[in-house]
Amino acid sequence: MDAYSEAGLWKGNLPSARRSFVGRQAELSELMASLGRAWLVTLTGVGGVGKTRLAERAGAEAGAGFADGVWLVELSLVSEPSPNAVALSVYEALGLADQTARPALEVVAEWLADKHLLLILDCCEHLPPDCTRVVSTLLAAAPGLRVLATSRRPLGLPGEQVLPVPPLATAPPCGFDAAGCEAARLFVQRAADAAPAAIRPDRDGAAVVEICTQLEGIPLAIELAAARLPEMPLDTLRRRLHARFDTLISPDPEGSAPEEGEVRHQALRTTIGWSHELCAPLERLAWARLSIFAGSWEREAAMEICAGGPLTSEQLPALLEQLADASLLQRTDTLHGPRYSMLDTVRDYGREWLARLGEEQRLRTRHRDYFRRLALRGGREFIGPDQVAWYERARTEHTNLRAALECCLADPDPLPALQMAGDLWFFWTACGHHKEGRRYLEQALDKEPDPPEGPELRRALWACGCVALIQGDARTTALEGRLASLASRLADPMAAEAMRYLHGTRLMVAGRPAQALAVLDDGTTHAPVHSSSLALRLLSLSVAMFCRLQMGEIAQTVTSAHALREECERHGELWLRAYTLYFLAMAALAQGDLAAAARHARDSLSLKMRLHDLFGIAVNLDVLAAALTPAGPKQAARLLGIADAAWRSIGRPQAAIPELVTARQACEEQLRAALGDAAYESAHRTGLEADIDKGITYALHCC
After folding, report:
1. Which residues contact 100 (CB under 8 A, 6 or more apart)?
2. Taking each helix axis from N to C terminus, what angle separates 455-470 and 493-509, rounded to the nearest 10 degrees?
3. What is the spatial distance between Cα 178 and Cα 184, in angstroms, rounded to a whole number?
4. For 553-579, what is each residue's pLDDT tens digit?
5. Strand 40-44 versus strand 161-164 pairing type
6. How far apart are CA 285 and CA 299, in angstroms?
7. What is the pTM of this model?
8. Quick one: pLDDT band at residue 246, thresholds 50, 70, 90?
9. Is the dihedral of CA 309, 315, 320, 325 positive or negative?
10. Helix orientation angle between 614-628 and 658-675, rounded to the nearest 10 degrees
11. Distance CA 325, CA 309 (A)
């Protein structure tokens, strides 16, 4: 929950306000009015003028008016220009977990159809046609949707209301009163953060206004200049800026004046260039190398990727802080230590210098290899005591992992892409990134007609099959065939077991548990202990257990569930352990022990909540509703509504598994009979419209 919505009045993902918001009251008022009457509002203006901050501020103030929240989609790091990439960014920002193979744009459009929601699309300028197509599709599908875009140019859609974002006012209403000038107020506030005693308002107003006028009122340029006050007095800053602009902002050699927007963009670039000159040599080198990151990064990653030559890993922590003090980096403190990031304009400048240094490819490779190693560790350690930490780390490093995968796919050697895409099996499956995972896995597998055979290919084939089955696509026979071929040619028992897992799971999902169990038992009972990774073995046992439930073998299910739960506990594993509790809840429900069923379902639900496993949350809500139906039908109806909200995000109610669909229908019929249709619909709607986190909290504590 972020700072804007912690009062619980509205949903969304807006970040906490990082710094104070200065001025812009006229623009903010006009923007708020526009959001009330237009479906699409686009803030335009040059880089660094404050479009993003204004959009976030408007979203925060408008939030309570949107029942389904305000959601920010950051497009600056989308490296693949395509409508699918833009739609996937929206899908991920909304936190959807659709388990179908449908395109992300179709899923998002369907989900938004009945929502009243504000979508902020930030940095559309490098993807204009793709953003235009996505916005057009979503607005046509969702009458309650409002879109606020930031871009250097309008999107060009009918009905779009374009609001240019001008620089901050540099001319005070009377005299040289810094307090009456928005640009000067920003400078004074940022100066107070950087060097509290650097400015005396009664003496320095004229110098402050002159500096802000020289900087054309561009907020980012003003912040970069104010950050230099610890190094030099205000008058020195004024004189050096003046000299810098006289040198670098001059009339065109042909004699023609540049357009207004180009002058201001040059003013920002000049200020960034001046900041670059003021940096010490090692600070410049660090700036260039750090620009290789996508999104934010941690200190340890910077020390490993960016060190080399004159820049040692021991020097980087101090350099990170120095660049943050100069406002060239943004620092965010987390429970796991500081993370750093760059504004787009600053990153672009750094990458230009990285290219001039001839280091771009080398740094890109080092970045790729660092995150390949991170993916390898995650794949090996996810089934273990650090599972929640791996979930959080993979989610935090998502943009860097994506950039590394794109680099792997660009490599002529198919092995890096196969390895990394397969090692991230846990991120694609357990962490809910099915659509993205399927795309990367298929690209890696299709990269070469005859990829190198070995464990990398086996893991990629298995992971691709897992994601396909999660999406309800049972066409995994080709993947199973390739795994069987690997097992035969390489005498690889793990490839054989991976093939059996996919085959057995496909049969289970199709409602053929006896056949599935025969296949899975062949893999889990007779295979040597060393033939399977822990993850694959535990997953196979879990699917076999569900098959026994489907076949009514309750006593054996209970015995197997207890054994598997104990093994998960020995390893400190939570994800599959939660499913054993779900199986115990199902078994208790079948035996008529409703109290035990509710207890096990709640225990499983609390674990699934820690891992944000929406599928696990949904199945446990269904079981809990069934367990509470006789004693608390109204609460049970509300729980079914909460469950249905989760299933809608997943896209396939009850995963289309026949037994689960039948059980859900039976529960609803009992509740309608007990409550009557009107009371059932009212309680169900209360759950359906609830925030999912609040709904889970209710489920954990009701009756």
Report:
1. 107, 471, 472, 651, 652
2. 10
3. 5
4. 999 999 999 999 999 999 999 999 999
5. parallel
6. 16
7. 0.88
8. low
9. negative
10. 40
11. 24
